[in-house]
Structures are given as C-alpha cells and as structure tokens.
Design brief:
mainly alpha, 12 helices, about 75% helix
Amino acid sequence: MLSYALRRLAMIVPVLLGISVIVFLIMAMIPGDPALAILGSFATPENTAQLRQDLGLDRSLIEQYAVWLGNLLQGDFGRSYSLNRPVLDEVIERLGPTLLLAGASLILCTILGLAAGVVSAVRQYGWQDKALTLAVLVGLSTPSFWLGLILVLIFSVGLRWFPVSGMYAIYGGGGPTDLLHHLALPAITLAVVATGVIARLTRSTMLEVLRQDFVRTARAKGVTERTVILRHALRNALVNIVPIIGIQTGFVLGGAVYIETVFQWPGIGRMLVTAISTRDILLVQGGVLVVAACYVLINLAADLIQHMLDPRIGT
C-alpha cells in the first residue's frame, strides 16, 4: 500500500506541472492587454508601457512562465491586480466555501447514485428500474445552470422555502442551520448530473456482479438477500465505482464556476468569473491551479481506496 501511494504521489508532480503550463498559455492567449484593463481611463501610452514593464509583460512567454513558476515554488502566487492583495490569501479565503459546496454535492450524489443504481439492478426491468432510469436520463440531460434557476424560481421565489443567494443571511444569520439552509439548493443543483452518472455505472456494475458464481453460492447457502446485495455484490462493485466517483469530483469542481455565479456563492468559481472579466491573470492562474491540485489529490484518494478494496490493482 505504501509503495503504491508513493508511486501515485510521484505522478502528481508532472501532472501539476503540465496543468501550470496549460493554464499559463490559455491566459496568455486571451485577447486584450492586462495593463489597459488595470489602468482603465488612466491608460496613456507611457503609463501602459511602464506598467507592462513593472508586471513583466514585456518579456517573452518563456521568461514570464519561468518567473511565475519560480515564484510558485516559493509559495508566492503573485498579487491580484484588481483586489490589490496576495493571490494566495484570496484563493485560500475562497477555497473553503467551494470545498464545502463541492463536498456536500459529492456526498449527496454518491449516496443517491449508489442507492438508485442498486435498486435499479435488483429490480431490473421492474417499475422501479424504469422510473429511476427515466429520472436519471432527465437529470443527465438538464443543464445545471438552468436547473439552478428553476429551483430558485420554484423554491425561493415561489414557495420561499430557501434563500435566493449567498452563504449566510445578511441579518441574523451565521449559524450551522442558516448555512445548511443556503447550501441546500446549490448542492442539489450541482449533484444532479453526477448522481445520474454514478447511478448508471452502479446499475451496470451491480448487474454484472449479481450474475457471478460467488453470488449464486451465497444465495445457495441461505444468506439473506439483503446481505448478498450489500455485503457481497455492492462491496465488489465498489472497486469499479470508486474511480468514477473520483472523476465526478472534477465535474463538481468545474460546475462550481457557474453554480456559484447563479447562487452568488462566495467561492473560487465566482472569484474566477470576476477575475476573468477584469483580466486579473495571476488571480485566475492561482485559482485554477489550486482547484486542479484539489482534483488531483481527491483522485489520488479514490485510487488508494480502490487499491484497498482490491490490492491487485496497481501491482
């Protein structure tokens, strides 16, 4: 286990290096001059040239990347142009709400996806299977941002059960109950598509496992159906399901960009939208890199869990 974990950790380094290159090049190819965006109405040719020199934008892309990467290795993500504060401080401040939203969505989609997939497999071709399959297909086909707006319209504007936006109430809020009240709609919206993916994979994997000899042997020995499903079939099916749950983390983190915008959630996604509109390159690069690192680490955890369930994997 330790050897496998060390090998996987060693693979993270080139992955993160590749991500840093891609993020840097994408931001470099965005049209417009960051110096002009920063100066605004004060953008004279002399001021623009001076600011480009101060920011290092007059250097070649290779030199700019080398300086940026060298600063990153020292823990310096640079300084946000628009916020006038260190990028790392802003990203860390926004990371908590994003991880909270993503974590709640991931827990929700994992529980619902596994439950729906197991029921569909056990009741194959029954009305439960058909109803769940239809619900999953509708969920997979529904754009998350549109679903979020519909949920706000129904449950916030119409029924007034949940708040429209934010993480806490402006007046009199701040407790765990208030947080959960604000978290419900964005977490559900973000979990819908991932729930469908996990449910479909769980169903197909469970059907395959239920046809294997050890399941028939367990039933022949008189083991209760509940034990056969949960302890024997689901445990073996999880070996193939866990990596998909890890992959869905990327969808959840990526979806946070527009879901946080819809619900005005104060996380990294909303920060990135604002930073892109103001051409705050260092803030965008820092935010994307931290989110990518979180995704890589979560997938590492999923690989380790898969290896624990089946030690033959990765040997």
